[in-house]
Automatic annotation (TrEMBL), chain A:
<dbReference type="InterPro" id="IPR000412">
    <property type="entry name" value="ABC_2_transport"/>
</dbReference>
<keyword id="KW-0812">Transmembrane</keyword>
<keyword id="KW-1003">Cell membrane</keyword>
<dbReference type="InterPro" id="IPR013525">
    <property type="entry name" value="ABC2_TM"/>
</dbReference>
<feature type="transmembrane region" description="Helical">
    <location>
        <begin position="240"/>
        <end position="258"/>
    </location>
</feature>
<dbReference type="InterPro" id="IPR051784">
    <property type="entry name" value="Nod_factor_ABC_transporter"/>
</dbReference>
<feature type="transmembrane region" description="Helical">
    <location>
        <begin position="46"/>
        <end position="66"/>
    </location>
</feature>
<keyword id="KW-0813">Transport</keyword>
<dbReference type="InterPro" id="IPR047817">
    <property type="entry name" value="ABC2_TM_bact-type"/>
</dbReference>
Automatic annotation (TrEMBL), chain B:
<dbReference type="GO" id="GO:0016887">
    <property type="term" value="F:ATP hydrolysis activity"/>
</dbReference>
<dbReference type="InterPro" id="IPR017871">
    <property type="entry name" value="ABC_transporter-like_CS"/>
</dbReference>
<dbReference type="GO" id="GO:0005524">
    <property type="term" value="F:ATP binding"/>
</dbReference>
<keyword id="KW-1278">Translocase</keyword>
<dbReference type="InterPro" id="IPR050763">
    <property type="entry name" value="ABC_transporter_ATP-binding"/>
</dbReference>
<keyword id="KW-0046">Antibiotic resistance</keyword>
<dbReference type="GO" id="GO:0046677">
    <property type="term" value="P:response to antibiotic"/>
</dbReference>
<dbReference type="InterPro" id="IPR027417">
    <property type="entry name" value="P-loop_NTPase"/>
</dbReference>
<keyword id="KW-0813">Transport</keyword>
Length: 264, 302
């Protein structure tokens, strides 16, 4: 047995049992704060969530690389890049981060704390929305500087962004909760690229053949870009079709994720 | 407060065709340190993870602080140290402890805990950059930070250097002194002997022996010496008092068990003289838990 003198710093701790859970809001905010810091500290995540969307916005708005129809190019680009930002955070970033948390036993370990699984999911959602808020502010700022003049109802745009967040979160968590972390990493990046290319973010869906266009319009990314564009660029009313597509993706993916999610 | 810290009756756990736990029963008393001792693959981690609520039993009953292990109200009352991982690799260890502390109503001060475990200078180091021993200490700290009534430690000293191991042992001793119940798994018998009030030896998913370390190793002592291998022990056995035994295990190492005293010692040295044998490292020792395990299962503990 060692004596007190051998202890690293000799600090006495009161280990007498005094268990108790913190109030749920405090636990959720603490976890959400940790998730936000993790996202903002991770270089690859920042590239995905901040740098790529802004570069696409600036690059494609400035240079006539794609035929986007009449009107200033930034009017076409800004809604697409907003949709891309939502996808990168809610889907790609969340899927990869959660997949590795599962792999490293973090989800398991958190399951042994007073923070419930529902509380953990709430914290993740809050963190995703907080990072999206930063993205939206930056993208809108850059777009305005490029001469963007958005129209339409901000409320309708907000509803679309939230529905898109729900749909992409459901898909990301479905991947993270079922696949190996490496497969999630590869898959989430591949899906990101495919959706970036085919989802109307920078290339209008109408450039694809008709039959393909009809299928592509059912993708969550196309619904989000199309919906945001009809509101912000064309000043149309709430795009019911796009909202329905996103709500359906959200319902199906969140249900599937909750049924299949493996915590370790 | 009457229910034991942990009570397991006839636990069964299967993974596909493999039965990992086969009718295991044990009881861990409140305020005591209980060690679950066994070789790798004996079912230690499965047992402790069922108690922690991570896995479901396929049969039998498990109660933790009188409750089903899946009950959420146990989470603040029970501290958990996983065998490995559980901490986000990029997170700074101080940040992790502060986060876990925020989940509890009356946590220990994370800075004091870091200080106590010699981690202050690493508080801003990402978890993945810590050494194995430092990572283990972070996990141990997170298990106790919420001031739980009961702590589960799955191989808390695996891969630790001697200094870190002693730091861990000290903390377990302090937990016990503070009235915390501790259930730990280990395959180090010295750890089980030093730390625990109660040892449960398991092998192939079932309990083969349990009791206090003293009761398990018995009052019996043994005399050991080294000499050239393959000596014929018949003469010695004839000379020894009835009820004694003599064996060679492993080659060149001789163990005499029985009423170990001056008389037995004299008999053995007389026999050595008659045989022309020089006995090296002659010593009188208590049986170890390793001997008990070998006897019960015919297998080495590690």
């Amino acid at each position: 047995m060692t004596t007190a003198n051998d202890r690293p710093a000799g600090t006495a701790l009161d280990l007498t049992p005094a268990p108790g859970a913190a109030p749920l809001p405090r636990m959720v905010l603490a976890q959400a704060g940790a998730e936000i810091r993790a996202m903002l500290r991770n270089g690859e995540q920042l590239l995905l969530t901040m740098i790529i969307p802004v570069l696409l916005l600036v690059g494609f708005s400035a240079a006539p690389l794609v035929n986007v129809g009449d009107g200033p190019r930034v009017d076409f680009m800004a809604p697409g890049v907003l949709a891309l930002a939502v996808m990168s955070t809610a889907f790609t970033g969340q899927a990869i981060a959660t997949g590795f948390e599962r792999r490293y036993g973090v989800l398991k370990r958190l399951g042994a704390t007073p923070l419930s699984r529902g509380g953990l999911m709430l914290a993740k959602t809050l963190a995703v929305i907080a990072v999206e808020a930063v993205q939206v502010v930056i993208i809108i700022g850059v777009a305005l500087a490029l001469g963007w003049r958005p129209g339409g109802s901000p409320l309708a745009a907000l509803v679309l962004l939230l529905l898109g967040t729900a749909a992409f979160s459901g898909l990301g968590l479905l991947m993270a909760g079922t696949l190996r972390a490496e497969a999630t990493l590869a898959g989430a990046n591949l899906v990101y690229l495919l959706m970036l290319g085919c989802g109307g973010v920078v290339f209008p869906v109408s450039t694809f053949p008709d039959a393909m266009e009809r299928v592509l319009e059912l993708l969550p990314i196309s619904a989000l870009t199309g919906g945001l564009r009809s509101v912000l660029a064309d000043g149309a009313g709430p795009p019911v079709a796009a909202m329905t597509v996103l709500a359906a993706w959200a319902a199906v993916s969140l249900l599937a994720a909750s049924r299949t999610f493996r915590w370790e | 407060m009457d229910s034991p810290a942990v009570e397991i009756i006839d636990l069964v756990k299967r993974y596909g065709p493999t039965t990992a736990i086969d009718g295991l029963s044990l009881r861990a008393a409140r305020g005591a340190v209980t060690a679950i001792l066994g070789p790798n693959g004996a079912g230690k981690t499965s047992t402790i993870e069922i108690c922690e609520g991570f896995r479901r039993a396929d049969g039998g009953t498990v109660s933790v602080l009188g409750l089903d292990p899946s009950r959420p109200e146990l989470r603040p009352r029970v501290g958990v140290m996983l065998q490995a991982g559980g901490v986000p690799p990029a997170m700074r260890c101080g940040e992790w402890l502060r986060l876990v502390a925020r989940f509890h109503a009356r946590p220990l001060d994370p800075e004091a805990l870091l200080d106590r475990l010699g981690l202050v200078e690493h508080a801003r180091t990402p978890y993945r950059r810590l050494s194995g021993g430092q990572q283990q200490r972070v996990s141990l700290a997170a298990a106790v930070i919420g001031r739980p009534e009961l702590v589960f430690l799955d191989e808390p000293t695996a891969g630790l250097d001697p200094q870190a191991r002693h730091a861990c042992w000290d903390l377990v001793g302090e937990l016990r002194a503070a009235g915390v119940s501790v259930v730990l798994t280990t395959h180090h018998m010295d750890e089980a002997e030093k730390l625990s009030d109660h040892v449960v030896i398991i092998d192939r998913g079932t309990v083969v022996a349990e009791g206090t370390p003293a009761a398990l190793t018995g009052a019996e002592r043994q005399l050991r010496f080294r000499a050239r291998p393959a000596l014929t022990l018949d003469e010695l056995l004839n000379a020894l008092p009835a009820g004694s035994s003599a064996k060679e295990s492993p080659a060149g190492h001789y163990i005499i068990e029985g009423q170990v005293g001056p008389e037995l010692l004299a008999t053995v040295t007389a026999w050595c003289a008659a045989e022309g044998v020089t006995a090296d490292d002659l010593s009188i020792e208590r049986r170890t838990l390793e001997d008990v395990f070998l006897e019960l299962t015919g297998r080495e503990l590690r």
